[in-house]
Design goal:
Oligomer: single chain
Strand content: 15-25%
Largest sheet: 3 strands, parallel
Mean pLDDT: 94
Distance between the termini: 20 Å
Number of helices: 3
Low-confidence stretches: none
Length: about 90
């Protein structure tokens, strides 16, 4: 990251639940943006498929990916809120 305060310029938030078929393409799309000073914050909402294992693999390959997993499904709104709470970029 280029910022002197060590915060990314942009946080891309991806709340997810049971999306093993599309999560890798989604994350790769987020990472392919022109701006590289980013973080991709992904919160898995207690998926019951292979979503989490895919996220673990992706996060090991790129340090801009930050993954979190809820212990239980919080529903879509609270999962979005968790994404916002975990983001490091400045919000204004």
């Amino acid at each position: 990251m280029n910022n002197p305060n060590n915060k990314p310029t942009v946080s891309i938030l991806i709340p997810v639940w049971n999306r093993e078929a599309v999560i890798e393409a989604t994350v790769r799309s987020a990472l392919s943006q022109t701006l590289q000073d980013i973080e991709v914050v992904i919160v898995d909402n207690a998926s019951t498929d292979n979503t989490w294992s895919i996220l673990e693999k992706l996060s090991k390959a790129d340090s801009r990916i930050r993954i979190f997993q809820n212990e239980k499904n919080l529903g879509p709104v609270r999962n979005w809120m968790r994404c916002i709470e975990e983001a490091k970029a400045e919000y204004s």
